[in-house]
Design a protein that fits this description.
Blueprint: H1 2-26, H2 32-57, H3 65-82, H4 88-113, H5 118-137, H6 161-179, H7 182-192, H8 194-199, H9 204-230, H10 240-253, H11 258-278, H12 287-301
């Protein structure tokens, strides 16, 4: 009953938020640039939820999340350009396809590397992320339209407020359902003590692979929405620093907190882009001095994240 009550509360908050944001967009109170940043923040929240499932709920330290984000982005860009898709309704099957492709690749990669733990798993996922980055840099050798190191151009702009907002709501509800199911309980048991979870009969390998595949699928969804929002892709958009961004968001919001991830995504993107607007161009790089200091202060103040007061 608690799950359904919390879901109703979430929807009761989400719908008025959508109406307010839609009004701001339609009345042009927000500039096109700010509108784009708002959509991007929602996309980042959706993608970060995938990493929260992998790391926050299951305890698998992944540094390759941006690779699956990039796979979804390039898949969407290629399919929508090839099929000349321009409407949001026609884009929905492509969005699902991108999630399936990223999830399937995550499944294949997860079979061997999820045998590793902690730092070794992080290095393995980092290696896969580097592999994907190198492949994207040389992708024009496989298909000229992918652009390679020059970047992928000519992508139709399809992503709008309705697509990203209701995709996030759908993903949050599905994720909450999983977390409150027996699978979510198994994931949290594995995070707390994998050996103990295995000793009571939990198939830890299958459960870890399920969480990893689902998280990669969400990254594919986010990548597809990103590609058809910015209409230009470059391999540098999906490097280690992007994976670190997702990781920071999960930690700031609180590992194992869905709403914390959403709040942290909005705060993180708003802060980064706000500094870009506020600071003069010649001192813009100083934000990468200010931001780490603020992160250190935040971790001292709220060591378990904004939404969690103590470890679970």
């Amino acid at each position: 009953m608690g799950f359904f009550r919390e879901s109703r509360i979430f929807l009761a908050i989400a719908i008025p938020v959508y109406i307010i944001v839609k009004a701001l967009f339609c009345l042009n109170i927000l500039s096109p640039y700010i509108q784009q940043i708002c959509l991007y923040a929602i996309i980042v929240a959706l993608t970060s939820l995938g990493l929260n499932v992998i790391y926050g709920y299951t305890g698998q330290f992944s540094l390759g999340h941006a690779a699956f984000y990039g796979i979804g982005a390039y898949t969407s860009a290629y399919v929508t350009k090839l099929l000349c898709i321009e409407s949001a309704i026609s884009f929905i099957p492509v969005l699902i396809l991108c999630g399936i492709v990223s999830g399937f690749i995550g499944y294949l990669i997860g079979i061997p590397i999820l045998r590793l733990r902690d730092d070794f798993l992080a290095i393995a996922t980092l290696g896969f992320g580097t592999l994907v980055r190198v492949f994207l840099d040389n992708s024009d050798k496989f298909a000229e339209s992918l652009g390679g190191s020059r970047g992928f151009v000519g992508i139709p702009r399809i992503t709008n407020l309705e697509l990203v907002f209701f995709s996030l709501i759908f993903v949050v509800l599905v994720t909450r359902n999983l977390i409150h199911s027996r699978y979510g309980l198994f994931w949290q048991c594995i995070k707390d003590d994998e050996l103990a979870a295995s000793s009571v009969g939990i198939d830890t390998a299958s459960m870890k692979l399920m969480a990893f595949t689902y998280g990669c699928m969400l990254a594919g969804f986010g990548g597809a929405l990103y590609a058809n929002l910015y209409v230009f892709l470059h391999p540098s958009n999906f490097d280690l620093l992007r994976s670190i961004d997702f990781l920071i968001i999960v930690i700031i919001g609180g590992m194992g907190s869905i709403m914390g991830t959403i709040y942290a995504s909005i705060i993180w993107i708003g802060f980064i882009e706000g500094l870009r607007i506020a600071l003069p161009a010649h001192v813009l790089d100083l934000r990468w001095v200010v931001i780490p200091i603020l992160l250190i202060a935040l971790m001292m103040w709220r060591p378990y994240g904004l939404m969690i007061k103590k470890p679970r």
